[in-house]
Amino acid sequence: MIPGPSPVARSIQDQMGRETIAFGDPDFVRDFKGLLADLRQLWKTGGEVFVVAASGTLAMEMAIANSTKRGNRVLVVSHGYFGDRFVEICRRKGLEVDVLASEWGKAVSVREMEAAVRKKKYQAMTVTHVDTSTGVVAPLADIGTLMREYPETILIADGVCATAAEPEQVDEMGIDVLFTGSQKAFGVSPGLAMVWAGPGAMARRKELGVIPEYYCDFDQWVPIMRDPSKYFATPAVNLVWALKESVRIIMEEGLEARYTRHARFAKGIRAGLEALGFGILAEPGVQASTLSGVLYPAGLDDAEFRRILAEEGVQVAGGLGAYAGRMFRLGHMGNIDQHDLVSVLAAIERTLLRCGKKIKIGSGVSAFMESLAKHAPM
Ligand code: PMP
Description:
Blueprint: H1 10-16, H2 26-42, E1 48-53, H3 56-65, E2 73-78, H4 81-92, E3 96-101, H5 110-119, E4 124-128, E5 130-131, E6 136-137, H6 140-147, E7 154-158, E8 177-181, E9 192-197, H7 199-208, H8 218-226, H9 237-253, H10 255-275, E10 279-280, E11 291-295, H11 302-311, E12 317-318, E13 327-331, H12 338-354, H13 363-374
Parallel strand pairs: 2-3, 2-4, 4-7, 7-8
Antiparallel strand pairs: 1-9, 5-6, 8-9, 10-11, 11-13, 12-13
Bound molecules: 4'-deoxy-4'-aminopyridoxal-5'-phosphate (PMP).
The site of 4'-deoxy-4'-aminopyridoxal-5'-phosphate has 12 residues, from helix 3.
């Protein structure tokens, strides 16, 4: 239950276990083409979609590489560790970076963003939809609405810990570039990056002419994504199949239903954790549906708690930065169900008892079930 890689469903694993075939095999070309069409349609862009062998970080570089050139100005909105990563990527590329950062657990307001873009002209702006270090969700729809008034600024959204769990419609929301990785809310093993580039982003790419990056260049990939029988760089055949199965599962559930499920589970799990005496790092109103930063009550040792919890069957991640030792991070995204979360809470209860905490057995699970009932879908 770490915040990615998240659990991989059996049918997705099966796709990775298939015999690998040539990427030019008509069966694979058909499968890849179908996957790309589904991704474009589900996330609603009239632009392009790219699926490449990469982790999320390469997708970050890809977004920057195709929308800026040396000397350009970029505004980075940071709600934690992964927002800050953009600063480093941009500086290495010779971009001038301004940062709007919040205290961990809080979010930068759209008003602050408006003041910044009004004051200076930026060629691009980055927002981490959900920062995995803090569990803070950015108000992406409102940011998109604001940035419609600044079409010369390419809006880049990092959806690594959000896409397929938090609502995102590329063109409708005014997002120019959205990207994610396979290992989070898609519930596939790590290894693929998915990037959506709306019409504004593709127009910017055209303006840039030849760019220094080779593998990252949208222009190299456009012909392949339109006709996957062509070659630029070898696709990760089995991961593409695995992603296709993930998208089939997503379509079977329905994206809207998937967003609702994630929101409902997130509320429930937090109710359960709070009933057991834990706190949540992200403030109410900016809490993500995909993970929680869970603050320890007094008297619990992080290393001991996580070691015992792992013995009880649940692996969680430690806190980052100043929160190392003070909290754990619990992923609740992808293809999981309420039975998984009941088991997680029960394991946490057993762990608390083994750590010598006096809790009422079942109180976390009850709070979870009550919250689910209260937020039942109509
Ligand atoms: N952005 C966010 C929000 C992330 O959570 C991560 C990884 N956890 C990344 C970017 C980087 O992705 P990767 O580790 O796949 O390179």
